[in-house]
């Protein structure tokens, strides 16, 4: 009984730490801190925050303002509940508050936030054996509502990453091509499960530049022409500029991917016809089409290329526009969200609403 309680307590503290590294909203951090403290933010939890949110335990790229905001919210909540705020927390908050502006300005990326997304193993016997499957280090925009959407981290990207980690055999040894790759999280997970080739694309140059930086953060080589060293490297990705409006079939002919992926790429009715055109070109390979083979009802066995698109239906009109355009282009779009639900690798990310995401399997009809 005592061992089970200790294990649960250790897991709750682990979730708290990983949520902080993932840049979860302060409200989510406080909710996890309360849970770890059995309903309140205890002195034990406050000491844990100090040990894990400051000093050498925090990457120098972590946004100081974010840490200061969390400490301020913790202190306010403990004081309002007539609890005891440990002196060290007051001191650390004062120190952070006085220097966070200077630190963030030195980084010259005040509109970006460094995040570490940790995917936990789906099977474990105890906390010590619950190993983190993969950690993705990402520079993400904090201006999601100011047009910098390509450098933001979206729920569909998290869902698609969980899908990849849940079904690694689908992607292992396959050539994978992602549309609208954004921060590159999906590419990091594809490399982890052993995709033979990973091609990440985006039509925004600033997003593409940030994506390349993120690949370097994760020790992934960005493939370039005439580089023998990179050709021999297993940890490599291609980051390519791709405009859906301008790309031609001849531009894509050299890729011939086995799997096409996309997360939250149905965002604008104007771009939907261009997206469908690109999907059709990528799914049309050597005259083969993605007809199902093997057992009836098997979502994953196909003869030709297949696309997996994760999306949140924010606007029914946009989604209906995609469905109609896909049907007109003779694309089969099947919702496999329930039948192929991924494991929960991100229990510590409370802001991530996985129930809002739909997963589509798209193939070219004969």
From TrEMBL:
<protein>
    <recommendedName>
        <fullName>FAM86 N-terminal domain-containing protein</fullName>
    </recommendedName>
</protein>
<dbReference type="InterPro" id="IPR029063">
    <property type="entry name" value="SAM-dependent_MTases_sf"/>
</dbReference>
<dbReference type="Pfam" id="PF10294">
    <property type="entry name" value="Methyltransf_16"/>
</dbReference>
<dbReference type="InterPro" id="IPR019410">
    <property type="entry name" value="Methyltransf_16"/>
</dbReference>
């Amino acid at each position: 009984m005592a061992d089970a309680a200790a294990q649960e307590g250790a897991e709750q503290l682990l979730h708290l730490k990983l949520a902080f590294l993932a840049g979860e909203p302060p409200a989510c951090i406080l909710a996890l801190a309360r849970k770890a403290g059995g309903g309140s933010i205890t002195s034990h939890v406050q000491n844990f925050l100090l040990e894990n949110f400051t000093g050498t335990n925090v990457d120098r790229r972590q946004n100081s303002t974010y840490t200061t905001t969390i400490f301020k919210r913790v202190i306010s909540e403990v004081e309002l509940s007539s609890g005891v705020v440990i002196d060290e927390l007051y001191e650390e908050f004062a120190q952070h508050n006085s220097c966070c502006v200077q630190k963030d300005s030195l980084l010259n990326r005040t509109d970006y936030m460094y995040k570490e997304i940790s995917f936990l193993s789906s099977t474990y016997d105890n906390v010590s054996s619950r190993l983190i499957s993969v950690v993705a280090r990402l520079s993400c925009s904090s201006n999601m509502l100011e047009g910098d959407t390509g450098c933001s981290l979206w729920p569909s990207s998290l869902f698609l990453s969980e899908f990849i980690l849940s079904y690694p055999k689908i992607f292992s040894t396959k050539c994978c091509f992602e549309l609208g790759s954004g921060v590159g999280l999906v590419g990091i997970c594809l490399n982890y499960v052993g995709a033979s080739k990973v091609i990440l694309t985006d039509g925004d140059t600033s997003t593409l530049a940030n994506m390349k930086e993120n690949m370097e953060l994760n020790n992934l080589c960005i493939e370039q022409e005439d580089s023998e060293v990179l050709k021999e490297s297993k940890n490599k990705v291609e980051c390519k500029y791709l405009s859906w409006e301008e790309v031609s079939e001849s531009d894509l002919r050299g890729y011939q991917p086995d799997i096409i992926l996309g997360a939250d790429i149905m965002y604008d009715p104007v771009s939907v016809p261009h997206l469908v055109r690109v999907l059709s070109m990528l799914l049309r390979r050597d005259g083969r089409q993605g007809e199902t083979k093997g057992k009836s009802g098997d979502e994953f066995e196909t003869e030709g290329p297949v696309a997996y698109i994760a999306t949140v239906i924010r606007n029914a009109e946009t989604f209906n526009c995609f469905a109609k355009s896909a049907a007109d282009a003779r694309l089969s779009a099947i919702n496999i969200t329930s039948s192929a639900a991924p494991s929960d690798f991100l229990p510590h990310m409370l802001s991530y609403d996985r129930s809002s995401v739909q997963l589509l399997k798209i193939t070219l009809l004969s």
